[in-house]
Design a protein that fits this description.
The chain is mainly alpha-helical. The chain has one domain (7-149): Up-down Bundle (Four Helix Bundle (Hemerythrin (Met), subunit A)). It contains five helices and no strands. The chain has helices at 7-18, 33-47, 59-71, 98-114, 132-149. The longest helix has 18 residues, at 132-149. The chain is globular, with a radius of gyration of 14 Å.
Length: 152
Amino acid sequence: MNTLARERSKGEILRRLRAVRPESPRRWGRMSAPQMVCHLIDACRMATGEKRVSDATSLVQRTVVKWIALYAPLPWPPGILTRPEMDQEVGGTCPGDFDADVAELERLIEAIAASRGITEWPSHPIFGRMSAADWLRWGYLHVDHHLRQFGA
């Protein structure tokens, strides 16, 4: 199972990230490649507790949806809505220099991968409380989802 806790999985994600270019065309959604990189930066900052994101959870989302999203052997589908604080057209971080933004995302992915021993993680806005293993699995799947969005 792919997770940021596995060096091979993390390396694959970082290699794919480096293949994205500012002009890379999207396959779905409305984000540009630079917006996607900043969306992932915001998501990593949410995971580390650096960025506050409003809750939109329910019992079903914290149990059934969370299990399916994290552990069912299916890629995440296009069209998943995000929270306003993570939407680059609403309250998310605006893109700057593309190479600098990619470098920041790489740094954050490395930091999250190195945090696997931490026991206190923030709540996810949809999935609620998550273990380190859950967050590292989510981190891989979230980045994978958006890299597939741009053909990487």
